[in-house]
Structure formats: C-alpha cells, structure tokens
Amino acid sequence: xxxxxxxxxxxxxxxxxxxxxxxxxxxxxxxxxxxxxxxxxxxxxxxxxxxxxxxxxxxxxxxxxxxxxxxxxxxxxxxxxxxxxxxxxxxxxxxxxxxxxxxxxxxxxxxxxxxxxxxxxxxxxxxxxxxxxxxxxxxxxxxxxxxxxxxxxxxxxxxxxxxxxxxxxxxxxxxxxxxxxxxxxxxxxxxxxxxxxxxxxxxxxxxxxxxxxxxxxxxxxxxxxxxxxxxxxxxxxxxxxxxxxxxxxxxxxxxxxxxxxxxxxxxxxxxxxxxxxxxxxxxxxxxxxxxxxxxxxxxxxxxxxxxxxxxxxxxxxxxxxxxxxxxxxxxxxxxxxxxxxxxxxxxxxxxxxxxxxxxxxxxxxxxxxxxxxxx
Amino acid sequence: xxxxxxxxxxxxxxxxxxxxxxxxxxxxxxxxxxxxxxxxxxxxxxxxxxxxxxxxxxxxxxxxxxxxxxxxxxxxxxxxxxxxxxxxxxxxxxxxxxxxxxxxxxxxxxxxxxxxxxxxxxxxxxxxxxxxxxxxxxxxxxxxxxxxxxxxxxxxxxxxxxxxxxxxxxxxxxxxxxxxxxxxxxxxxxxxxxxxxxxxxxxxxxxxxxxxxxxxxxxxxxxxxxxxxxxxxxxxxxxxxxxxxxxxxxxxxxxxxxxxxxxxxxxxxxxxxxxxxxxxxxxxxxxxxxxxxxxxxxxxxxxxxxxxxxxxxxxxxxxxxxxxxxxxxxxxxxxxxx
Lengths: 375, 338
Prior knowledge:
By secondary structure, chain A is α/β, with parallel strands linked by helices.
C-alpha cells in the first residue's frame, strides 16, 4: 500500500459526534488541492463545517456520495499524487477498513467526558493527551455555553499539546451551582480546577465570558499562564448586548430562544433545531435559570461589563492574541484593540460572536500559530 | 449526556426526584406497594407494569396501595390535592376512568373555577393508554380526546424518555389537574435522559424532524410511526416535518400553524377513535386560521371507528402504521404545484 495515498475520513468534532452527513463536495475529482484547502462540507446534528485537505495532492476519488450519513472515521475520499495509478487507488478504497472508534457501543462518548470535584462542585471536563507532556491548553467557554462550543477547535490544538475544556459551574453538565457570581469567584474556581487536576501552567483560550475569566486568571496568577487567546472576549470594554443576555436567560421555549441565539452567529441559519434543543435542555435543568440570572447580575449589571481585566493585559508580558468577528452583535469588535499594543489582533471580516465555530479553520490556524510561538 | 433510560425508568426517576424534593408528593394506586400473588411482600410489583418499583423502599407510607376502586382513590387523591398535598394517582388503564369520571371532570377540573381561584387541585393522574398490547377492547383505548375536551384539565402524552421525565416533573409541580397518558407499548424504548431534575413547559410541541414538503402532527406512539413514514418518504424525495405535540391541553397551535404555513400541507395522525379526536380538532383549527396557506386537503390518519380488536391480526390492521401515514402524505402532494 502506497504511503503517498492520503485518506479523507469523517472527522470527530466534539466528543458526542458519532456520524456526519456529507453535504457537498467543494472540489472536483482530479482537481489539485493545497494543504488546508476545504474539500467538502459535512453536517452534524450540531452544525455544518468543512473538511480540509491534510496534505497537498490530487483529489483522486470521491468515495462518499453527497447526502450520505457516515460514521466517524469512514472513508470519504482519497488524495494522492498523479503518479499513483488508478488500480492502486481502487485497491486502497476496496481494502480500506475504518479504524475502530472508541464509541462503537454508543456509550463510550460519555466515558470520554470526565468529572472532578472542585470546591464541592462537580465539574465536567474533556481532557486529551497526557497533561504532563507539555503545557496544556485550557478552553473556557462563554455565558450559557459549554465545552462543546470548542468542538471544532480542540483537535487543532490537541495535535501538539494536551488539551482541557471544562463546563463552567452552572453550565453544561457541571453542578448547577455557582461558586459565587463575581469574576473573581469564577477565575479562582478555574484555577482551583487546575489545582485539582495537578496542572500548574496552561495556555488559556477563552471565548466571551471565558475570555474575561482567562484574563482575570492571568491577573491573579500570571506565572501559571503561558499564553492567552481571547476570542470575542468580555473584559476588554464595558459594552455588551444586554438584550441578548436578558433574552437568553428568559427564553423558555424554542420560539423565544431562536431569535436570541441567532444573534450569536453572522449566519443565522447555523442555529439548528438541534442546537436550540441542546440549549433548552440545559436551560430547563432545575436551578439553571436562577444561576444565569445571578451571573448576569454579577458580571453585566445594567448592560455594562463590571470588570475589564483584559484591558492592557498584553503589557504584563504574557503573549496575548485577540480574535474577533467583525459582525459580532454581542460584544463589539472595536474592543479587540484594548488588550494592549503587544497583543496580536485579528478581526475576521463578516464573522459573528461564535467566530470559533463559524470560522473554525481560520481561528484554528491563528490559535496554533500563537501556541507554537508562545511555547 | 449519554446516559440512557427507558420511559419506564424515566417516569420512575421523575417521581423519585419529586418525592425527594417535595414531601407533599404522595402516590396512590393498585399494586404499587404489594399486590396479588406477592404473598404480602412489599414493593413486589411497582404497579401493573413495574413503573414505580423501588419507590416504596425509599418513601414508605407515602405510597398507598389502594383497593380495586378507582372511584374511591381517585376521589381521595383529588381531595388530598385540594387540601395541600401533591398526589399522583396511578390508574392501571385509562379505560378504567369511567368509574371515577365525576371526580375528575366535574370536581377536579372545576374547583379552581367554581371557587373563584381560591382552590387549586395539583393532582396528577397517570394511566396507561393505547393499543398494540394484545389487551383487548377494554384495556387498549386512546381516550386522550375525552380529557382534552374538558376545560380545567391538562393532558400530557410523552413519546420518549426525555420528555416523559420532564413532562411528569412539570405535571407534579403544576397547580392544575393533569392527565398523564403513558403508552404501554413505549415503556421499553430508550433515550438519553439527564440525571438532574428538569421540567418541560406545557404547551410547547417538539419538532422531531424538519421538512419542507408536508407537516405531520401527532403524539405518543404515533410519533414513532410518523418518523418511520418520513423515512420511507425520504427515499422518494419527500421531506416531511414531524411535530410531536407532547401536550394535548394546552395545545401548541403556534408551532403547527408556523409549520403548515411553510409546507402548505398537513397530515394529522391520531391513535384515538376518528370522531371528535385530536386530529379533527387540529384540522378544524388549521382550516380556520390558515386556510389560505393550505395547498391540499388535510388528511387524517386514524383507526376505524370500532373497538380495538383482540385478534392480533386485526389489532395490527386497526392501528395506523407508517404505510398508511406515508400514503396520506403522498395524497397531499398529488398534483403538487411548483
């Protein structure tokens, strides 16, 4: 079997993904592709995304039909240079056996999530790689989100560093209780989470509320923070869309939630029924409504951000990168420059607040570069 | 959230968590503690199909085994509710409602209104519903329309474990009498259910499948048959939307109308007898509110107007199935204008 044949397989975006639907091929058979070029679009029950070429080559074979629903790791297509013969490609496709996925029994997706008690609260997290093998990357989601907000990003960082992503207290599947509703409470809690896992130093990647928590952690424990990536982050200015916060907390039905969630994305069609159902399932849990209300009051009273630890954070000497979508309707992208002159700032044209999902490929490239340069 | 429970387990967990949270929650029913053939052993059956098994060991005398007299204990549960308890009465089969109907439709359903809002009746009456269990005409009926007809009652009919738990918790916390229909054929189906408590608000239908060509509205076991039909139709290039009503009273007409205004076509599937049922009700309301949006006559898929047959062959023919539902959807698309 030729080592120059590169399989294109169904990716695993997030721990709960077990299958995906091929929406459309973006290149024709026989086309030459560069490494990183989008090859096809795949839809999961959460969101659509593109699969990129892992290597340069020629798209020799489209194995998966458009519309096909296929398991993770299934063969979708084949990349190879021109010198590989068609017979060899045929043999490769015929002989291809998808590697066993960890969750063939359906139950193991849950095993990939782990739980740890921090200050009396049960915290769900996803870890990848040996935490002692390099400085881990910790992903911190935003208000009302959960660790699956990073489903397109974790693997990019995970290719060369161990990664961690947690559900903040009263979010996702962590305990529905806050350690306190101030930013100091939350950043102390996340530091305690790292203590509980025996992790001293981390690269922090924070989105929205998670960004201001990351900046606050850097203020409180600069030595423990190897780098900061602040994505559509709070804590860099005082403006925030109060209607969004209020609407998100109050919404109890799909009909109420949909227009609120659509504000998160530049492309409102990304708000799928499954995404709404997942958020509603979270919001219905006993105590979540009260916790979110407390949190919004503690951090964003009167529609202003009460704490702005990210302002000038790059002056501390920690490598800082700020990523934003220019069409962010929750926190304005003009806050992006407030981290200080030393910060790398990237405003992606036309992206919304969930820029790490909407423009995963570009965000991942920036993230990887920042992590490598901060190593 | 990968923990899976059956509907039976989800209902048990909902009752367990609410009994743990609120000491006013009590249960009454036949064989929920001991039972025939148990030689006096407690917690033997957990009701006719074992749904409440294990709760007696945790909550003791808050579960009451009753005589075979629905008229007595359903009345007692309603009385206890008016006096401040939050009782759950379990009827083995909804078919037995006949002997306790005065207590339900003329007392429980009317108290809040007759006492000018000064009384409330937070009782839940759980009962097995539906056909397909080879239980013959007196134990197989889908009497949901009878309760939906009565103002003052709420009527709930879950199709999956997640909804069963969240809707039952909402029913227990609700201050009005709730009829909670559990389809006996669905008890064993499994689905993901969070361990934590949660309540699903009444009056919000669930779109279980998105589609643009035709809207199928249904509830209970027929949700599964409708999804099977949608899968058949998909192979023909027909994309059906499937709406699970979840609660029949209150009824989420907004979701139905929004869908029909988009698809222009409606198939109502109801396991209840065809006259004056949920399908006829929704059909009439859609015609009145959205006639201009309809591009084809509304189709209704129901059993024939006969008692549920005991013969397994006839019972299978009696029930609407995916073939009949798919055929009705195709009828709405005949001569489709593009």
